[in-house]
Amino acid sequence: MAQDQDIRTGRHCVFLMHVHLVFTTKFRHKVFTARHLKRMEEVMANVCSDFECELVEFNGEAEYVHLLVNFPPTVSVSKLVNSLKGVSSRRLRQEFPELKKHYWRAQRLWNGSYFAGSVGGASLDVLRRYIESQDRPHV
């Protein structure tokens, strides 16, 4: 079970929701250095904060990044992704002009697709068994 400090509260709910996101560069070009990734983590943490989310983990390699984001139920994952990709692309292109050679034709840093996977403390089998084990009222 999750630690009590991990559980968040909203006005009408109590929640603990995480999503694993993976973004790849346009044409899978190997464009990122450690310096780019460090700055990107800062930018993405700020975007998450604007959405009242928390960037729990961030890592990447030359052509992709992984994020683990704790988010409230009021946030649409697709809107969060659009903002993360848009703001990071714009900021990195402004701050690192050398990236232009990798996206000149497409005018985009990121591939249009992304991976989003829900993350939780219990496996689907454990949750399924728990729900099945609940007593049903006798009608």
TrEMBL record:
InterPro entries xref list: Transposase_17, Transposase_17_sf
Domain Transposase IS200-like: from-to ranges: 14-134
Domain of life: Bacteria
PANTHER family assigned to the protein according to its UniProt record, in alphabetical order: TRANSPOSASE FOR INSERTION SEQUENCE ELEMENT IS200
This protein's name: IS200/IS605 family transposase
Provenance organism: Ferrimicrobium acidiphilum
Gene from which this protein is expressed: tnpA
